[in-house]
Design a protein that fits this description.
The complex is a heterodimer of chains A (about 750) and B (about 475). Chain A has about 750 residues and is an alpha+beta fold. Chain A contains 20 helices and 30 strands. In chain A, β22 and β23 form a beta hairpin. In chain A, α9 packs parallel to α10, α14 packs parallel to α15 and α17 crosses α18. The longest helix of chain A is centred in the C-terminal third of the chain and has 27 residues. The termini of chain A are far apart. The model of chain A has no long low-confidence stretch (mean pLDDT about 95). The mean pLDDT of chain B is about 95. In chain B, α15 runs antiparallel to α16 and α16 runs antiparallel to α17. The chains are: A alpha+beta (about 750), B alpha+beta (about 475).
Chain lengths: ~750, ~475
């Protein structure tokens, strides 16, 4: 089934935040944000701005009736800076005017004096100065200290991965419309409607039941609107609450880029030990996460880095420590993969470094250490592994040996053009690692005309969630999908939602929908059983008709629904789902945090132009563990899209802050995401379909995040291509591998002479 | 009063001519299918079609509405996504996008559909390559492009059936675009005939207007907040400033000639056999349809692609203030970072250069973080007159290595009269290093830019096998 939004999408008729018809009298907001990364506010002068035409009011921290606080995990982030600023782009004041242009013009007239304080942008420096968001955490398996003695080879090194701008094409925004009794309706481009509701309640000091957050869909989220959409919702609500007027704020791209956090940059140290059989015996890793100026979701992101520090490999002795380091950058936040990719990059770098030292192919080390069912993860969960299945399938299906020979032959025949090949296995745990977040609800109404409305806790952002929800309802009821409408995500209809994140939303919301539909169907069957004086077990609803003992009756779905209504049987159900069996004990750092894992293997081939340092990705050939895909079009789309986003992170997407903490890559002209010419020329995806039981909806495994990590393969393929040109190249494990880094690695000698 | 047709509707508006079409469409006409992604022409979410009469024939091009002033819409047909929708059915572009799963979050989708609609109205060849080229200015963050490539390919297949049929006739017959398109030409002819009676171009009026606007692709990126209400002299559609022609060896460009005009010009393609490849490296289809060569010069970016291209050709500028004109070599235009040898009231009227002869070799190189739709880290052009293996004359230019687009005088002089050899290239690179002063910025470190320019100089010679290794 194609995405149910396709029709309105291709006609430009889908409604996003900025498309909502405005209520008469709507005012427009714009933020004045800190020009300095760290300092004490000496004075804030809004007089000139207030005199600008169209300006209605300018709000500062002093205007907040409740708590000036938006921190979710830790209360360490102000909505509007009161006495200190902690990053360039930190909101200080909110201008409200009669037009967007007037608001923006007035923002330029605000003057601020700040006594500067020292600026930290480097996580290692923050760690040295003990600027940590939370105390460090360590995951341990076996005993690394004892294990080093059993190692024949021990290799150490350091790595860095840069951040990544989400670059959802729809920027952040919110629109708050006051209701009677000081209630507020907020239209928000958010992955977490409840988060917006909770934050606004806190800021305005009003109960959550007075705040209705409604989200139709997002023009992309990727984690960037999980926690960081809340500030804009709360700001618009603050202004609307004071002024009793609707207030809208749809951010300009440059406001969005400089004020919001991104994927966390990491700096890491590793030590890896192998025996003569290339088995990894021990692995120690220390992660320095660049959290930015406030906690945001950093502690949870850091935790997932630890969960995924050994990727798809079994290592008997592991010690992984992570520091969440506080710097003067915008608070970094969720981004597809959520710390997992950063952890996986380090183990892949460690394997590459070990392979170079041992003069073997990294593929050999990778293959020898793949997880098997029954192996223990460093956090105690026992693997149900598909790692070898995916790897072997990829090696055989795509004929790795031939691919490698082709690369070698090409490199022998070409002097100024080199190819590189790398394998990237993945293993990604599904569930929020904070167990309590793994719950969802669905509200299903069957109307008297037989049509069905479904509301869930999940937000549609292009991932096809609503399509899968509709498939679930259509499948349980066995009715024409056209009878079903999936409605907006609304905190008045479905309460206390977890954000749409962690790849888990189809599972959680799909299962809640399934439970609700099953309950309604059961009641409908009871009605039919009574009518046909048959046992309920003999009643079936199939393709809009009622069947008794396998025989079609003259009762249609509509007739059944009407009969139930006449008999005063409830046609609505609100259902709750919480996956069983998951837990995690943070005091021991052990447990069973994931409902299941997703596996896969990608083979990436690249070509470098060794004259210019530019490159192309020739192909990425993937075997991916989909479980039993309930929607192959959507799942392939997620897989391809995540892969390309991962390649972007590893290649051209270069986030640049200067030493003063100012974002240099602050627009689409300076921050480049993949365009149509830069994606792999060929992407092949083979479905590893398994019939094994799992906790996924209809056994169709979560697919949002895991394939992003195939992109790491592009980095190592480029790494190998550089080595083919210059075997002596000393390539730092420092992603992204921009054309600059490629050229510098190809010609280190020339570079030295230039200095 | 600005008059144009938006979709089916005739518009007559007194709104400031500097207002961008995107805001007009979304916030004045409340047509919300055209999306705001970046407001700097880098994402394509706001792509529209602009149809204009050229020799009484209608010619459609895609443009980014975020950079297009409504002042540049006068007498034209503006098409937003609402203008290509059929009631209750999808057109083949939309159907292909939906069938292939080419839309996920949907926010970029109208832009892709509009670019493909522009493709359906274009005159060129139809194959997978040209189909992809038509959407080279559209960024999608969700799909990874593969399904979009397939949808575009389907359109190329459909368009192959056109076989010389009139574009409008074909797309309406095939229900790719609505029937009202067939009546637009006459409506525009009527509108423009009436307009000719109303306005007389007033070159002397130039002095009164502080801003001269060509395609808007740089002005709106740099000054989008002030331009909407600015007093602007629009030159984009000035008939005297259009056109590419040749007088002997001299090629003369009007100042409102766009990159796409160059791409289409037989004169240019004849003079520069690799020109299509050069153009592919420079911005994107909608931007090329708007960006003028003169605007590229005056913007004075140290990295302007066409500035570098024409510096190596020793292009000459004809500047006018409406009363007096003067000729200035492009090489003398730049006095310092964004400082020009040009009075505010002067504008470029014409650009001319001598086309490279048969004994000449011209080549352009550009490297950027992303190969396409990106600003160069370093770009460079070379123009050599050769006698066998001897360089009789050399002109080498480079961008991104100094405060202005640079003509590398010393390196050029050094190359003159010498035999091409590995050693010569090596020596010329050393001289180049004494001429440039790159800085470290978002486009790369100064060390990288120096190394890269050296490599690109080698590439100049290797590309035509003037040098072997």
């Amino acid at each position: 089934m194609m995405n149910i939004d396709s029709y309105t999408h291709v006609r430009g008729e889908s409604v996003y935040l900025d498309d909502i018809p405005l209520v008469n009298g709507t005012l427009f907001a714009s933020v004045f944000d800190s020009p300095v990364a760290h300092g004490k506010i000496k004075s804030l002068d809004i007089d000139a701005a207030m005199k600008m035409p169209g300006v209605v009011r300018i709000f500062t921290a002093a205007d907040i009736p409740g708590e000036n606080q938006i921190g979710g995990i830790i209360a360490d982030e102000e909505l509007l800076a009161s006495t200190h600023v902690h990053f360039c782009g930190m909101p200080v004041a909110l201008v409200v005017a009669t037009s967007d242009e007037a608001a923006k013009a007035a923002v330029k007239k605000i003057k601020i004096e700040i006594d500067p304080l020292p600026v930290i942008t480097d996580p290692r420096e923050a760690k040295e100065k003990n600027e940590l968001i939370i105390p460090p955490r360590t995951f341990q398996l076996g005993d690394t200290t004892a294990a080093w003695t059993q190692c024949d080879y021990i290799i150490e090194g350091s790595t860095a991965t840069n951040g990544q701008e989400h670059l959802y094409i729809e920027t952040q925004g919110a629109y708050a419309v006051p209701q009677e009794n000081s209630a507020i309706r907020i239209y928000s481009s958010t992955q977490g409607p409840t988060q917006v509701q909770r934050t606004t309640a806190r800021v305005l000091n009003i109960p959550m039941n007075f705040i209705e957050v409604d989200t139709t869909r997002l023009g992309g989220g990727f984690g960037g609107k999980e926690d960081q959409a809340s500030a804009w919702g709360a700001m618009c609500a603050l202004a609307a609450w004071h002024l009793k007027k609707p207030v809208k704020y749809s951010l300009h791209r440059m406001e969005d880029m400089r004020m919001t956090g991104k994927r966390h940059p990491y700096s890491s140290d590793f030590k890896i030990g192998l025996n003569k059989d290339y088995k990894i015996v021990a692995y120690e890793v220390t992660f320095f996460q660049n959290a930015g100026a406030a906690a945001d979701l950093s502690p949870a992101v850091m935790e997932r880095t630890l969960f995924h520090c050994t990727n798809s490999y079994f290592i008997p002795n592991v010690k992984a420590t992570a520091y969440s380091c506080k710097t003067n950058l915008p608070p970094n936040t969720a981004f597809r993969g959520f710390g997992g990719p950063q952890g996986m990059f380090v183990i892949e770098a460690a394997i590459a470094e070990a392979a170079a030292a041992l003069n073997v192919s990294p593929i050999l080390i990778q293959q020898k250490n793949l997880l098997k069912t029954g192996d223990e993860f460093p956090y105690g969960q026992i693997a149900q592994s598909e790692a070898n299945e995916c790897w072997d399938k990829a090696v055989n299906l795509y004929d790795l040996q031939k691919l490698q020979q082709e690369v070698d032959a090409y490199n022998n025949n070409n002097k100024l053009s080199k190819k590189g090949l790398a394998l990237m296995p993945i293993c990604f745990g599904i569930s929020f690692t904070k167990t309590l977040m793994n719950q969802a609800r669905a509200l299903v109404h069957v109307y008297t005309d037989g049509s069905v409305g479904v509301s869930t806790a999940g937000v549609e952002m292009g991932q096809g969630l609503n399509t899968k929800i509709l498939q679930v309802a259509a499948s349980i009821f066995s009715i024409n999908p056209e009878r079903i409408k999936v409605n907006t995500t609304n905190t008045y209809r479905v309460a206390n939602t977890s954000p749409t994140a962690a790849s888990a939303s189809s599972d959680l919301n799909g299962k809640a929908t399934e439970i609700a539909c099953v309950a309604i169907l059961q009641r409908l069957k009871e009605v039919a059983a009574e009518e046909f004086t048959a046992d309920i077990s003999s009643i079936e609803v199939k393709e809009d008709c009622v069947f008794v003992n396998g025989k079609q009756t003259d009762w249609s779905w509509n007739k059944l629904v009407q009969a139930a209504f006449v008999k005063r049987v409830s046609l609505s159900e609100h259902a709750h789902y919480a996956p069983p069996g998951i837990w995690f004990d943070t005091t021991k750092e052990k447990g069973h945090p994931f409902t299941y894992h997703v596996y896969g293997t990608a083979i990436t081939t690249v070509t470098i132009d060794c004259l210019r340092g530019i490159y192309e990705v020739d192909s990425v050939k993937i075997v991916h563990d989909f479980g039993k895909s309930m929607n192959p079009i959507i799942d392939i789309g997620q897989c391809e899209g995540a892969l390309v986003q991962g390649i972007g992170w590893m290649t051209m997407e270069e986030m640049l802050y200067d030493k003063e903490g100012k974002l240099k890559s602050n627009a689409l002209s300076t921050y480049k995401v993949p365009d149509i010419y830069s994606v792999p020329k060929e992407i092949t995806i083979h479905f590893l379909e398994t019939e094994k039981e799992n906790l996924a909806i209809f056994r169709s495994k979560a697919v949002g995040e895991p394939p992003l990590m195939y992109g790491i393969g592009a980095y190592f393929a480029l790494f190998n291509a550089i080595k083919a040109f210059n075997p002596a190249a000393n390539i730092p494990y420092d992603a992204p591998m921009t054309p600059e880094k490629v050229l510098m690695s190809l010609y280190p000698q020339t570079l030295k002479e230039n200095k | 009063m600005i008059r144009f047709i938006l979709n089916e509707k005739t518009i007559a508006t007194e709104l400031p001519p500097g207002m961008v079409m995107l805001d007009f469409i979304r916030y004045q006409q409340h047509l919300t299918g055209t999306k705001i992604g970046c407001r700097e022409g880098d994402c394509g979410a706001c792509t529209i079609l602009v149809g204009e009469l050229v020799n009484d024939e209608i010619h459609y091009q895609s443009m980014t509405s975020c950079l297009m002033p409504i002042g540049n819409a006068a007498g034209k047909h503006i098409v937003s996504i609402e203008g290509i929708n059929f009631k209750d059915q999808l057109n083949p572009i939309q159907q292909a996008m939906a069938d292939e799963g080419a839309t996920q979050c949907g926010f970029c989708t109208p832009g892709f559909v509009m670019s493909l609609a522009g493709y359906c109205l274009s005159k060129g060849e139809f194959d997978q390559g040209t189909a992809i080229a038509s959407i080279d200015g559209n960024i999608c963050r969700c799909t990874g492009y593969k399904p979009i490539e397939r949808a575009a390919g389907k359109m190329a297949t459909i368009l192959k059936e056109r076989n010389g049929e009139d574009e409008i006739a074909f797309v309406t017959r095939k229900k790719i675009l609505p029937d009202y398109f067939t009546g637009i030409k006459n409506r525009l002819l009527e509108m423009n005939t009436a307009a000719r009676g109303r306005s007389v171009p007033d070159p002397a009026g130039l002095k009164a207007r502080p801003h001269i606007m060509g395609g808007g692709t740089d002005l709106y990126v740099q000054h989008h907040e002030t331009m909407s209400s600015a007093d602007i002299h629009f030159v984009f559609d000035h008939p005297e400033l259009n056109g590419i022609h040749k007088e002997g060896n001299k090629c003369i460009l009007g100042s409102s000639v766009t990159v796409s005009d160059l791409k289409r010009s037989p004169i240019i393609n004849d003079a520069f056999p690799g020109f299509q490849q050069v153009a592919k490296l420079i911005s994107s289809t909608p931007i090329r349809n708007m960006a003028t060569i003169a605007g590229n010069f005056i913007n004075a970016s140290p990295i302007g692609d066409f500035t570098i291209f024409f510096l190596a050709l020793d292009a000459q500028l004809i500047l006018t203030d409406g009363i007096t004109t003067r000729e200035l070599p492009l090489r003398k235009l730049y006095k310092g970072y964004k400082t020009l040898d040009k009075r505010p009231e002067e504008q470029i009227e014409k650009i001319w250069f001598e086309t490279p002869g048969k004994d000449s070799y011209f080549h352009f190189e550009k490297v950027s973080k992303r190969t396409h739709l990106d600003i160069a880290s370093v770009n460079t052009a070379i123009h050599l007159k050769l006698n066998g293996n001897t360089i009789e004359q050399a002109s080498l230019s480079a961008g991104g290595v100094g405060p202005v687009p640079m003509y590398l005088q010393k390196t050029s002089d050094f190359l003159k009269g010498k035999e091409i050899s590995d050693a010569l290239i090596g020596d010329s690179v050393e001289i180049m290093k004494t001429e440039i002063s790159p800085i470290s910025d978002a486009r790369g470190s100064k060390e990288y830019k120096t190394l890269l320019l050296a490599q690109l100089i080698k590439a100049h010679f290797m590309e035509r096998r003037l040098l072997s290794s």
